[in-house]
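Open question from group meeting: does this chain pack into something compact, or does most of it stay loose? Before anyone orders reagents, we agreed to write out a predicted structure and look at it together. Recording both the input and the output here so the notebook holds the full record.
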Amino acid sequence: MGTKKARAGRDLSTFLVWFDTEYTTLDLDRARLLQVAMMITDGDLRRVGPPESDVRLAIRLPPSARLSPWVEENLQPLVATCRSAEAVTAAEADRRLVAALEKALGPDVDKVTKRPVLAGNSVHADWWLARRFLPGFLARLHYRQMDVTALKLEWLRRDPSFDFEKESGEIVRRYFPGALIGPDERHDAHYDAQASAAELAFYRKHLLSRPPRPARGPGGAAKKGRRA
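Structure tokens returned:
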């Protein structure tokens, strides 16, 4: 009884589970996973655990799997890895993602509103694939999502001449100092998960920054000594 109450009382909803996938085609009903990556931060974009605790897995791909022309042209090394002994099944990836979540944040909590939030760019597509292939992982997440693409669209509406250069490792590390980036990681799910965190930090600084609202006392009045 006491354990169940403790689990129900924990609130993990301020944590962000940065998640990204590579897959075989943009037709998500037919797509198969090629790669999954996960990184966890708190609400202030500070890593939970060292970079080495991130999940980065190639998913086993049968030789008969159909690939889009873009994937065939741009993801050849990843596809080769997916057809090697290094790759794991989607079921094994699901198990490892759940294990990494529990190691970082503890056991699952009972209420969906107290679970950590899925985060990333166009993360609805990753959610859709997780719904198909990674049910255990998805079951441990909040029903809300932090989709950085929404902020990207608003930023470009205001200033279409300047976009966040997510392909630049230097810029990613500037806004997300905890990034673990190799020399050439374009079209890599792990890189993209970290770049999404950096991009959110960029928008927080340049698009969302504003003075904090005054704290209020029990009666609703602003506390003295606090600036608006």
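Observations to bring back to the group:
The longest strand covers residues 33-41.
The radius of gyration is 19 Å.
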